[in-house]
Write a structure and sequence with these properties.
Layout (H helix, E strand, L loop, with lengths): L16 H10 L18 E4 L7 H18 L5 E5 L5 H14 L4 E4 L7 H12 L8 E5 L8 E7 L8 H16 L10 H5 L4 E4 L1 H8 L6 H7 L3 E4 L8 H9 L3 E3 L30 H5 L6 E5 L6 E5 L3 E2 L2 H15 L8 E5 L5 H9 L3 E4 L7 H6 L2 E6 L3 E4 L13 H15 L3 H12 L3 E8 L2 H8 L10 E2 L2 E2 L2 E5 L6 E8 L3 E7 L5 E8 L3 H29 L1
Parallel strand pairs: 2-3, 2-4, 3-6, 7-8, 7-9, 12-13, 12-14
Antiparallel strand pairs: 1-5, 4-5, 9-10, 10-11, 14-15, 16-22, 17-18, 19-20, 20-21, 21-22
Length: about 550
């Protein structure tokens, strides 16, 4: 761990904004370099202008690719367009507007030239498309989520309002890279000043539409009546303008502890490695809010695009994301009487198995998916899932009447839910969680990272269950070796090994030269440590075995 973890960095270590924005315009991506091509996953394309992986050329190519994709899919309604507070988001917005306007696509931008959280874009798309069968809207959010200040991101949300599916993301990536290879031939562009005054760029009041609708998904009257003392940290992100409106409209006893918007994010405590990262599930990045926990009954933070949440309780400080998911599910399925009786719980394969036990206790279907919120879109749209969540502190759930709220993660809503639970339970959230583990067992959960080159990450993706010869894990018989989600068969992109009282999963990172090991024990911390040690040894051996096989075939 870096000695700067949990502390503010010296100004000399902050990102040089002028140089960063200059690099966005000055550097031209080289498509023959793999790390400078468009890599458009379900969270869109991410990179840094310094590294030639997020530059004007990328955004020109991606924006035009989205125009081509829309035409092929018959999407001809408006495009909801928002951005967060990262330094590269504003230049990317200008570039995108130039392309969309030149293609005669109507972009709806914030009517106050403000920032727009990811859930507000999803909410807007769904609201516009409700009851329509043609002229459907879609959206773009310009954000790299919680990534460091020098990064940029650009993601696409189809008419269902959620993250792009693999087919859509793959199509956009392929078209965008064709434009890069062709030196942007075929990309249409209109000068920014002319685009902004054209009929193809219009203002939209995202804030009022989102804030005014919150009472349909949350009981904020109960929060106000109980006088729950709330602390909120937008982490300098897109929710900064939303919280004053929410607090005023619903008469909440809430304080926004930080209203600063600074693209260097110099007010942030450094993360574990000494880098600034607006990760609201990190105890280091959350150090400032944790220090204030005694001032509030409950507090929370959101990352820059507000799709994630970090909950801080008076008694325990930063709540483990898995623990909060369990508390939220337990409360919601007891309180939301108008939800369909057969609606289930969605979780990723690397989220705590405490949710499996909780689903069984509640008598609700459990849907396990690979990593990525896109797998929950259909369930949330149809009401088949009442709640869907990930271990990385992202979740969404249905409106109080059982209809869809968003098909994206909504960190603002999950924060407000923490206040609702506190108000109605009349006690600390950790006490709610303790009731659950007293009945179902205490989980010991941890995620760790291990170095892995791009080649080794690809090898890990290709491991099949038949490749894994393991009969015992940490002293318990292995019940299953899985490389795909139960039921659907969608690939995990790694492996999961389960026993009666523990499991581990390993999968490559989508953004760093590492692979991730997730492990959990319902026995003890010592048992968890054994699982982690044996998991690391097994995965490294499997990768080496695959590597040797690849060498022999050559």
């Amino acid at each position: 761990m870096d000695k700067s973890a949990g502390k503010r960095l010296d100004p000399s270590r902050l990102v040089d904004l002028e140089r960063l924005v200059h690099s966005y315009y000055a550097l031209t991506p080289e498509p023959d370099q793999p790390d400078q091509r468009v890599i458009f996953g379900t969270s869109g394309h991410r990179g840094s202008a310094f590294k030639g992986s997020f530059n004007e050329g990328h955004i020109l190519a991606i924006a035009q690719a989205i125009c081509v994709h829309r035409k092929r899919r018959g999407v001809d309604g408006p495009l909801f367009l928002g951005l967060d507070t990262h330094a590269l988001s504003a230049p990317a917005l200008r570039t995108a507007i130039e392309v969309f306007a030149a293609n005669q696509i109507t972009s709806l931008v914030d009517n106050r030239d403000g920032y727009t959280p990811t859930p507000a874009i999803s909410h807007a798309i769904l609201g516009y498309n409700r009851g329509r069968s043609h002229g459907l809207a879609d959206g773009v959010v310009i954000t790299p989520s919680h990534n460091p200040p020098e990064d940029g991101g650009f993601k696409y949300n189809p008419p269902h309002g959620g993250p792009a599916d693999a087919e859509t993301a793959g199509a956009i990536q392929e078209i965008a890279n064709e434009f890069l290879v062709g030196r942007l031939r075929g990309v249409r562009r209109m000068p920014y000043e002319r685009a902004r005054t054209s009929p193809f760029v219009r203002g939209h009041d995202y804030t009022t539409a989102y804030v005014a609708d919150l009472h349909h998904v949350l009981d904020l009257g109960a929060v106000s009546s109980a006088g729950v003392r709330i602390g909120v940290d937008p982490m300098g992100g897109a929710s900064v303008g939303y919280w004053p409106a929410i607090i005023q409209r619903y008469r909440l006893a809430a304080t926004v502890v930080n209203v600063d918007v600074d693209p260097t994010f110099g007010f942030m405590p450094a993360d574990w490695d000494g880098r600034i990262r607006m990760d609201c599930s990190s105890p280091y990045a959350m150090a400032r809010l944790i220090a204030l926990r005694g001032d509030f009954d409950v507090a929370w933070a959101n990352d820059p695009d507000a799709d994630r949440h970090g909950i801080v309780t008076r008694s325990q400080g930063l709540m483990n994301p898995n623990h909060y998911l369990a508390a939220a599910i337990s409360y919601l399925f007891a309180d939301r009487r108008r939800w369909p009786l057969d609606c289930g719980i969605g979780k990723t394969m690397v989220t705590s198995s405490l949710l499996d036990r909780l689903a069984a206790k509640l008598g609700r279907p459990l849907i396990e998916t690979p990593v990525g919120f896109r797998w929950f879109v259909d369930g949330l749209l149809t009401g088949g899932l009442g709640f869907a969540g990930e271990e990385s502190a992202g979740a969404s759930f249905l409106r109080r009447d059982g209809s869809v709220w968003t098909t994206e993660k909504d960190g603002m809503m999950l924060g407000l839910l923490a206040a609702e639970i506190t108000a109605k339970a009349g006690r600390d959230l950790d006490a709610v969680y303790q009731d659950i583990v007293c009945a179902l067992g205490t989980p010991y959960y941890e995620r760790m990272d291990a170095p892995a080159s791009t080649e080794k990450q690809e090898l890990l993706k290709r491991i099949a269950s038949d490749d894994v010869d393991i009969r015992e894990l940490a002293g318990e018989a292995v019940l299953a070796v899985e490389t795909a989600a139960p039921g659907s068969g969608h690939p995990l992109g790694g492996i999961r090994v389960r026993t009666q009282n523990g499991w581990f999963a390993a999968r490559p990172s989508g953004t760093e030269a590492i692979y991730k090991i997730y492990a959990e024990s319902f026995v003890s911390l010592d048992h968890l440590q054994r699982i982690k040690t044996e998991a690391r040894a097994l995965v490294d051996a499997l990768i080496d075995q695959k590597e040797d096989g690849a060498d022999e075939s050559r």
